[in-house]
């Protein structure tokens, strides 16, 4: 009987400690994964503004890929996600509060070097079947079967973080239709 009560007490104590700890961690991760949070540092504001004018925020499908989708691993890989998110956060915190000059172009080049195709393919996985964009489909096919290890950013280097004077609301534009043979 004593062992049973001890077991119940340990389970209740585990729930009382683990639930608030897990909930707080989850809440912090969700709140710090928004573009608005990223924009709270003045160094990153220009990147968030240029993202808002890009096709990753404004497109004819109405889909939005935010900072976390491109700059962090998939949340399903929990350990890697937390590790990368924490290291990115500490790096940005250091730049913000230590007064070190933030060089956007240098940061952009570093991001291109560490980018991998899996980040892009989380959303763009169906590259070989794009019937309404035959040219894009054929271009991706020739790259994927070339035998060379291409990175998506080699061709799509200036896709997102480019300053634009106006917001182009793509959801109001007619979609492009390629006319193939």
Furnish the topology, listing elements before pairings.
Layout: H1 2-31, H2 35-38, H3 42-52, H4 67-71, H5 78-97, H6 104-114, H7 117-121, H8 134-144, H9 152-155
Summary of the model, kept short:
The protein has 181 residues and is mainly alpha-helical.
**How much is the average pLDDT?**
79
User: Which structural class should the secondary elements be placed in?
Assistant: mainly alpha
Gyration radius, rounded: 22 Å
Count of helical regions: 9
Beta-strand fraction estimate: under 5%
SSE pattern, N- to C-terminal: HHHHHHHHH
Share in helix: 55-70%
**Main beta sheet: strand number and arrangement?**
none
Q: What distance lies between the first and last C-alpha atoms, to the nearest angstrom?
A: 80 Å
Instruction: Catalogue the unreliable spans.
Output: 176-181
> What global shape is seen?
extended
What is the tally of beta strands? 0
Overview features:
single chain; 181 residues; mainly alpha; 9 helices
Could you describe the 3D structure shown?
With 181 residues, this protein is mainly alpha-helical. It has a domain at 115-159. Helices cover 56% and strands 0% of the residues. The longest helix is centred in the first third of the chain and has 30 residues, at 2-31. It is extended and about 75 Å long.
């Amino acid at each position: 009987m004593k062992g049973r009560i001890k077991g119940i007490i340990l389970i209740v104590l585990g729930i009382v400690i683990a639930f608030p700890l897990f909930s707080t961690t989850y809440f912090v991760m969700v709140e710090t994964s928004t573009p608005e949070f990223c924009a709270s540092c003045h160094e990153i504001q220009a990147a968030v503004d240029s993202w808002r004018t890009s096709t990753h925020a404004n497109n004819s499908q109405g889909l939005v890929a935010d900072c976390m989708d491109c700059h962090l691993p998939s949340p399903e890989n929990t350990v890697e996600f937390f590790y990368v998110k924490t290291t990115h956060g500490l790096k940005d915190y250091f730049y913000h509060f230590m007064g070190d000059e933030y060089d956007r172009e240098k940061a952009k080049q570093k991001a291109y070097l560490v980018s991998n195709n899996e980040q892009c393919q989380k959303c763009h996985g169906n590259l070989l079947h794009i019937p309404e964009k035959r040219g894009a489909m054929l271009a991706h096919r020739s790259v994927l079967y070339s035998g060379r290890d291409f990175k998506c950013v080699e061709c799509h280097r200036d896709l997102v973080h480019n300053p634009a004077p106006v917001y182009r609301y793509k959801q109001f534009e007619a979609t492009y239709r390629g006319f193939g043979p």
